[in-house]
């Protein structure tokens, strides 16, 4: 998984029918040589801007949504505790 | 998912039979340390050149097309609203 | 998918039994910040050296070969038309 | 797989129900041009901080946990012997 | 797939039960802008140090081992002929 920081919500009016109702956020990858890379993830946990999150990517992301038919390749699976240092 | 900008259509006369009829576009990854990377995605939503889109990659891309038998690893799943900043 | 240029054939006498008879080519990724990366793909379309191709990667690559049991993660799915600019 | 060094545990109180009880660690990729990249993996082997581990990513990571329904894309599958040089 | 050079064997005494008996090697990615990246792959072909190999990654790697239950994401699928230039 990847550690990332929530930047902002991403709004998309024209999108796949199966994605209607899902919240999307822009994330910035945290720390290390890959820092600063941007990615978009679905968020069903309710992460707020500025929070650090754990992001699961690939086919495993669909497992978070309990739906095998959805075109999603990244999803927030947890919010990193504020006092957790890395 | 990845945020990207639609550059141009990609034309391929000699291609897999299962891809006939699909529209392909060249995309440029937006923002962050991965910016400028190019990728090709299938587009069933009808994104125009210059529009910013959400791209789903990997096995999840096949879910957008409702076809498990198609050799596609990237597809546009949404168009980012024009007034959405990131 | 990725746009790449066919460099050369790759010969491997000692390989997995399931790969016997498949043609492999070395590809160079085209354009953008990822340009110059090398990868090997199976080719069932018959692309020639110097041609620009569309490459599908990951589990979707197996869909091109209609065989679920084959250890292949990249395959040429189309040849980009010569007059297609990007 | 990737060779990485265990940095620290990652704590997440608000996370997917299916992840409760799993231990997560921050890893730093070792050696080569990808060195320094950070990633988070599930650990069921009990690796300690400073140990070098083998990390399996993608859909294969779910095989380590014997659970197909879990949103995990990286897991420690082995601890590299101390006297193993690379 | 990726072209890589076999560096050395990787020894791991504490590892997943399903991996016991498998040989692991450290590989260095060859050529192009991704050169020098290190990765670990399972080897069932018997590649020796210094040999150039074709590596298959992701879910397709499991196909090489005929076992769907194994946490492996990279495997050597062929040895590149010595007189093959690239």
UniProtKB/TrEMBL annotation, chains A, B, C, D, E:
Transmembrane segments: none annotated. Gene3D superfamilies: EutN/Ccml. The lineage of its organism: Bacteria, Bacillati, Bacillota, Clostridia, Eubacteriales. It is found in: Carboxysome. Keywords: Bacterial microcompartment, Carboxysome. It holds the Pfam family EutN_CcmL. PANTHER family: ETHANOLAMINE UTILIZATION PROTEIN, ETHANOLAMINE UTILIZATION PROTEIN EUTN. Its main location: other. InterPro entries: EutN_CcmL (IPR004992), EutN_CcmL_sf (IPR036677). This is Ethanolamine utilization protein EutN. It comes from Desulfosporosinus fructosivorans. GO terms for cellular component: carboxysome. CDD domains: EutN_CcmL (cd01614).
């Amino acid at each position: 998984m990847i550690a990332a920081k929530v930047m902002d919500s991403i709004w998309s009016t024209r999108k796949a029918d199966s994605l209607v109702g899902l919240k999307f956020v822009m994330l910035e990858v945290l720390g290390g040589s890959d820092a600063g890379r941007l990615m978009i993830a679905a968020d069903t946990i309710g992460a707020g801007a500025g929070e650090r999150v754990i992001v699961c990517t690939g086919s495993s992301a669909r497992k978070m949504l309990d739906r095998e038919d959805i075109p999603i390749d990244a999803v927030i699976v947890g919010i990193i505790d504020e006092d957790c240092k890395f």
